[in-house]
Amino acid sequence: MKKYLAIFRIRFINSLQYRAAALAGMATQFAWGFMEILAFLAFYKADPAAFPMEFSQTVSYIWMQQAFLALFMVWFFEAEIFNAITSGGIAYELARPVDLYWRWFSQSVANRLAKTVLRCLPILIIAMLVPEPFRMSLPATHGQFLLFLVSAAFSLGVVISFSMLIYISTFYTLSCTGVRIISAVLADFLAGAIIPLPFFPQPFRAIAEMLPFAAMQNMPLRIYSGNIAGINAFWGIGLQVFWLIALILIGRYMINNALRKVVVQGG
Amino acid sequence: MRLYMKYFSMHLQSQMQYKLSFFFTALGQFLVSFTALLGIWFMFMRFNAVEGFSFPQVLLCFATMLMAFSLAEFMGRGFDHFPRIISNGEFDRMLVRPRRVALQVLASQMEFSRLGRLVQAILVFCYAIPASGVNWTYDKIITLCLMVICGSIVFFCLFLIYAAISFFTIEGLEFMNIFTDGGREFGRYPFSVYGKEALRFLTYVIPLALFQYYPLLYILERKTSSFYMFMPLLALPFAIPAYAFWRFGLSRYKSTGS
User: Fold this and answer.
1) pLDDT at residue A265 in the model
2) Confidence at residue A245, expressed as pLDDT on a 0 to 100 scale
3) Are B50 and A199 a contacting pair at CB < 8 A?
4) Chain A to chain B Cβ contacts (< 8 Å)
5) Does residue A105 register a pLDDT over 80?
6) For residue A180, what is the nearest residue in chain B, using CA coordinates?
7) What are the tens digits of pLDDT across the range B122-180?
8) What is the pLDDT of residue A9?
9) What is the spatial distance between Cα B18 and Cα B111, in angstroms, rounded to a whole number?
10) Which residue ranges of chain B lie beneath pLDDT 50?
């Protein structure tokens, strides 16, 4: 456990170094979130009755999504891991006395957390200060906020254990760009990155809410905005736990299988 | 130009060596914009219209943006890679060759898999052009062509600016993405949807609305003045500051060594 914490710490400090990049990223995300809200506002004005969430909930959803982008988006892959597999650097990794799965896992957690820590606060603060109707609201109760934190942690786990499957599949395919783009795009769409799941028409919505992708950003963001509350929130977190365990088990099985017959590329 | 065609066939041949990989990447590109399309479709299953634009009319907008963007991205991919060319010293080698620098940067990278988006744009046009209920006369067809062509020139200029900035920063600047990728993403709806201020900004500062919103009004017969038909042409002078900025950056270039 200690060595994985050490990996986590090194990576975390390393990622904190890129402050200028974080500043540029923040400005981008802020502008992006603002445009996103304007688009939803236009739809809201067109027909408020057809809007499946309250407008303030949608606003909170979008701001939180932008603030925690690096935490929840599947497409933030670790290029380093892909390179290790295709370039043969994996041989060194295998010689080390750490479990590869958990090494990559803690590395991903660290990088995502560090990126988020740098970026989220300024975005959240500005989002709380802008005038209505663009202002982000605070959660109604402390309990709701607590549930959000729990759900966010599980969501991060699900996102990473899902991307682990993509990393591991590189052992088999070697050329990864295509698979990487396709899986990330589908996962993010089904997780509610483009439009929140409540905007999906039935029966797409019912199906999407059962998939592991619903256990990604969909859950914490909707709990925070108050769209999922009370007993439903507990059910949702239960679903997240289920998918987290399932994805980790699949990943462990795949990596053990792949490592047994790994062919190291080049020297 | 002959040189460019040579590079063109060279890149094409090298990428065709890995057919499966090429196919998957193109499919990936296709899906990226396909989820955006799905998003629009899902929204319109709930709402009949936004700002008075119906689903096929919005698709007209979406396909125009997508086609303009993918053409520009395909041509200007080298600019996207430019920060890397600068930081690894490759650019110094380009400077000593007796050919135009911009041409070499352009030719250094072409990704044919980006055409996955173009295919999608064409398919969406195939649906939206008959479904939008527009009476397609010659002037409207010309307007649509102008929208796509001028649009890709504007996007191309944005890529050029992105590359020119990295003369100063060495790193790529994520902020430019809001105009390139963001322009594509948000251009799926007519820009008037985002309110007056956004529209004004996109008209006078970054001329994205000039080839998207105003000519669309002409096509949909909301504005009859033929001034709107030629609005996309007004976006073309944007190339002047973009190119000037590139020249300025070039004159200030300091090698990173290595």
Assistant:
1) 58
2) 92
3) no
4) 101
5) yes
6) B28
7) 998 888 888 877 788 888 888 888 888 888 898 888 888 888 888 777 665 677 778 88
8) 80
9) 13
10) none
Nearest CA in chain A to B18: A175
- Summarised one tens digit per residue, pLDDT across range A122-138 is 888 888 888 877 888 78
Å from B190 to nearest chain A CA?
A: 10
ipTM over 0.85: no
Determine the distance in angstroms separating the CA of B101 from the nearest CA of chain A, rounded to an integer.
27
Is the CB of A35 inside 8 Å of chain B's CB atoms?
Answer: yes
Cβ neighbours around B125 below 10 Å, total:
19
Mutate one of B22, B50, B113, B196 to test the A interface: name it (highest A CB count within 10 A): B50
Interface of B with A (CB under 8 A): 18, 20-21, 23-25, 27-29, 31-32, 35-36, 38-39, 42-43, 45-51, 171, 173-175, 177-178, 182, 186, 189, 193-195, 198
The mean per-residue pLDDT over the stretch A104-128 comes to 83
Chain B CB contacts of A24 under 8 Å are: 173-175
Question: How far is the C-alpha of B214 from the C-alpha of B193, rounded, in Å?
Answer: 13
Q: How far apart are CA B180 and CA B167, in angstroms?
A: 19
Q: Over 80: is that where the pLDDT of A65 sits? A: yes
Q: Tokens 């060319």 identify what position?
A: B85
Ordered by start, the domain boundaries in chain B are 30-251
Q: Residue A5 is which amino acid?
A: L
CB contact under 8 A, B173 and A201: no
- Token pair recorded at residue A60: 């909170």
Could A180 and B29 be called an inter-chain contact, meaning their C-beta atoms sit closer than 8 Å? no
Residue of chain A nearest B198, judged by CA positions: A35
- A234 shares contact with chain B (CB less than 8 Å): no
- A38 and chain B: CB distance < 8 Å anywhere? yes
Between CA A133 and CA B193 the distance in angstroms is 16
pLDDT bucket at A107, cuts 50 / 70 / 90: confident
